[in-house]
Amino acid sequence: xxxxxxxxxxxxxxxxxxxxxxxxxxxxxxxxxxxxxxxxxxxxxxxxxxxxxxxxxxxxxxxxxxxxxxxxxxxxxxxxxxxxxxxxxxxxxx
Length: 94
Fold this sequence. Notes:
Layout: E1 2-8, E2 11-21, H1 24-34, H2 48-56, E3 61-64, E4 70-76, H3 77-83, E5 86-88
Parallel strand pairs: 2-5
Antiparallel strand pairs: 1-2, 1-4, 3-4
């Protein structure tokens, strides 16, 4: 099980709107859907291989957004739970 969610860089111990993914494939598809080419330009593209390496490190992985005070935090459920103190769910009115 993997978790991905937002953190505020000023308060990284709280994960915002976490999403659970059953395996690396589901996490990769979530990232591809969220970080689509229409809305985001990544300095380093995310591949299945790079995601697998990041997850295998056993450490939380951050994806920063230049000019913004938030980042995506992801990792195994155990890694994310250890890296955060609590989670919050907030409505995203778009």
